[in-house]
DNA sequence: TTAGGAAGGACCC
DNA sequence: CCCCAGGGTCCTTCCTAA
């Protein structure tokens, strides 16, 4: 929208530019790899992906984003016409407070393995070091530096990589191997900080403050060099590291000198803020493709650019986001690290991609196999879940999820399948011929499999208390001092640092894109009902002898006082809840009359415009 | 009003 | 074999039951 404001002569050109940029991926900024003829690479990638369904989908998303950005710009314009001095003042106070909370006393190190998977493979087959090589199939998980010279990068489609680098060698993933190697690396890290925080197997945070105290002869730099050297000696793996007064900065720093190097950000306000002032926004962890574009649109390219616009952050984005931006601008971040197993897992699931799948039977077969997979994972983790989540990706790459709270924790493939089937059935009706390229199942509301509420009484007892499942992983295998959870949170509270760390962005204020096509979701519930009935003998309890009886908490019907049967019925009722509107009476089998319109009537009502809260 | 369910996304590795 | 994964976390918005 710069020069010519014509309808759409060159607009496609414009659009493709940003798209091309996004296709090029984060590598050009995130990773330190430059010096590649990015023009050429971009061209190749663009041409290679052009016309594919994936590309089409990306285009649609890109258009949406563009629209959203227009909205943001409009609001910005409106805001600038107002007198926002109060805001400036308020934000400045906020900044002062943040600044006052700054803690530069800790020395945090972020250790990051270089092209981890590829490096591990090279250990087994040294000859691979000399040639471009990548790990992964359809999508590259990672690739060695030789391959990167061709513009190949992790996260790239395999066939595109092949075009960039015809001789590229592909290796299959071998997680066993990587896991072992990661363990070797960690053995070294633990010596410097027993409470190191392992990220995803190829990276970790260490707080070496204590270590430095105990080794006065060492500096942060020499200590880190020693860590890296020792890792290399022990695991034959080269790592990069970042040293900084907080985790966020350390993470950024470790990327600064990527292949086998390290970088330190001095623990002074000056050094930190100077560093941030020229740092591209995308370099920070929570800023991805989308947010980067939004920020750039309003004139924020580096973190230094935030300051002049600081008063617009709040009204333009959400509160959380505004706070996040300020924190980054100031170069603040968390100053503690702790073992990941003091962490509660929130969900567990599995998904898989396949070629165009359609038809009731194939889809059900896939659902079944997915359920079987998930059952294994659940068993492995000794977990049950109380909410099923079905995820589906159409052949057009559009993703939809349907979830259902069950009110009871389940874990067997059979249960999973039965719980998810109605969801699938609903989708089948929503999208006439349902054509999928991906299906996934995920459980949330996890509880410990060993003492999950299997009985109804507990169910209702727990219903109120959120997050009833309080199982903690007690892997004492490490043997390190295990801090009680409370103590930990107390400390956190006491230290007064706000934990807005891994803040993730999302569509802050969708300004509304009116491109929905009202689908006829009509028969969905009907089908779901049908399935629910057919799926099992869930409607049996009716004809039971009349001895002791319990009332169903859902439909109030009296039921035989027999655990299995009773639970089964309640399950049925719970699942029926969603479609209860389809059922006229509360008695009798659900014969689907006319269906719920719930989804239809929620139209597009006028969205509330931003509002500026009145300042006192 | 509020809490929690549901759906959609952004982002990370 | 698919010619752009899979495992997770967290944030937002909408909606409804209590």
From TrEMBL:
CDD domains: PolY_Pol_IV_kappa
Gene Ontology biological process terms in this record: DNA repair; DNA replication; error-free translesion synthesis; error-prone translesion synthesis
Biased composition regions of type Polar residues, renumbered to the chain: 1-12
InterPro entries in the record: DNA/RNA_pol_sf (IPR043502), DNA_pol_Y-fam_lit_finger_sf (IPR036775), DNA_pol_Y-fam_little_finger (IPR017961), DNA_polymerase-Y (IPR050116), DNApol_IV (IPR022880), PolY_HhH_motif (IPR024728), Rev_trsase/Diguanyl_cyclase (IPR043128), UmuC (IPR001126)
Region (Disordered): 1-20, 460-479, 581-616
The enzyme's E.C. designation: 2.7.7.7
UniProt keyword annotations, A-Z: DNA damage, DNA repair, DNA replication, DNA-directed DNA polymerase, Magnesium, Metal-binding, Nucleotidyltransferase, Transferase
Domain UmuC as annotated: residue spans: 108-288
GO annotations of cellular component type: nucleus
Reaction(s) the record says it catalyses: DNA(n) + a 2'-deoxyribonucleoside 5'-triphosphate = DNA(n+1) + diphosphate
Biased composition (Basic and acidic residues): 592-604
GO molecular function: damaged DNA binding; DNA-directed DNA polymerase activity; metal ion binding
Family note: Belongs to the DNA polymerase type-Y family.
Protein name: DNA polymerase kappa
């Amino acid at each position: 929208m710069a020069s010519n404001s014509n309808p759409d002569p060159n607009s496609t050109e414009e659009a493709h530019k940003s798209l091309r940029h996004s296709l090029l991926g984060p590598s050009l900024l995130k990773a330190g790899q430059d010096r590649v003829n990015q023009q050429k690479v971009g061209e190749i990638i663009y041409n290679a992906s052009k016309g594919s369904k994936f590309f089409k989908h990306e285009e649609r998303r890109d258009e949406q984003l563009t629209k959203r950005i227009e909205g943001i710009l409009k609001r910005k314009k409106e805001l600038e016409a107002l007198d926002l001095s109060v805001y400036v003042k308020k934000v400045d106070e906020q900044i002062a407070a943040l600044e006052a909370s700054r803690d530069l006393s800790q020395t945090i190190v972020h250790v990051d393995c270089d092209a981890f998977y590829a490096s591990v493979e090279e250990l087994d087959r040294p000859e691979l070091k000399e040639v471009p090589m990548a790990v992964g199939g359809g999508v590259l998980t990672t690739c060695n530096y030789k391959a990167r010279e061709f513009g190949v990068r992790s996260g790239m489609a395999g066939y595109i990589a092949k075009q960039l680098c015809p001789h590229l060698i592909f290796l299959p993933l071998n997680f066993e191997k990587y896991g072992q190697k990661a363990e070797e690396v960690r053995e070294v890290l633990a010596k410097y900080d027993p409470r190191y925080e392992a990220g995803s197997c190829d990276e970790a945070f260490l707080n070496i403050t204590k270590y430095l105290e105990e080794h006065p002869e060492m500096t942060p730099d020499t200590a880190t060099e020693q860590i890296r050297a020792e890792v290399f000696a022990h695991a034959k793996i080269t790592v990069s590291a970042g040293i900084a007064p907080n985790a966020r900065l350390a993470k950024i720093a470790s990327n600064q000198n990527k292949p086998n190097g390290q970088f330190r950000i001095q623990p002074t306000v000056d050094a930190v803020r100077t560093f941030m002032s020229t740092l591209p926004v995308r370099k920070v962890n929570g800023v991805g493709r989308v947010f980067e574009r939004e920020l750039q649109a309003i004139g924020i390219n580096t973190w230094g650019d935030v300051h002049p616009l600081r008063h617009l952050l709040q009204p333009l984005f959400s509160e959380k986001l505004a706070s996040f931006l300020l924190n980054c601008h100031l170069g603040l971040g968390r100053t503690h690290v702790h073992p990941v197993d003091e962490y509660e897992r929130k969900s567990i699931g599995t998904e898989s991609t396949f070629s165009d799948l359609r038809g009731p039977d194939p889809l059900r077969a896939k659902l079944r196999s997915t359920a079987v997979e998930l059952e294994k994972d659940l068993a492995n983790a000794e977990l049950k879940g109380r909410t099923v989540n079905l995820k589906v990706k159409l052949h057009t790459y559009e993703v939809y999820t349907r979830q259902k709270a069950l009110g009871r924790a389940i874990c067997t493939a059979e249960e999973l399948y039965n719980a998810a089937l109605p969801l699938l059935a609903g989708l089948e009706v929503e999208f006439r011929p349902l054509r999928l390229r991906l299906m996934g199942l995920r459980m949330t509301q996890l509880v410990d499999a060993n003492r999950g509420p299997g009985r109804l009484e507990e169910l209702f007892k727990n219903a109120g208390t959120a997050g009833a499942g309080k199982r903690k992983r007690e892997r004492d295998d490490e043997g390190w001092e295990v801090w009680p959870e409370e103590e930990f949170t107390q400390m956190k509270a006491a230290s007064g640092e706000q934990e807005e760390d891994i803040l993730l962005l999302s569509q802050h204020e969708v300004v509304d894109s009116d491109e929905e096509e009202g689908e006829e979701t009509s028969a969905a519930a009907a089908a779901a009902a049908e399935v629910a009935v057919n799926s099992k003998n869930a409607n049996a309890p009716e004809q039971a002898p009349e001895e002791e009886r319990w009332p169903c908490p859902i439909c109030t019907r009296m039921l035989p006082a027999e655990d299995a049967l009773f639970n089964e019925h309640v399950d049925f009722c719970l699942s029926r809840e969603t479609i209860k509107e389809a059922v006229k009476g509360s008695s009798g089998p659900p014969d689907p009359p006319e269906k719920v319109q719930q989804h239809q009537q929620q139209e597009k009502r006028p969205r509330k415009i931003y509002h500026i809260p009145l300042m006192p």
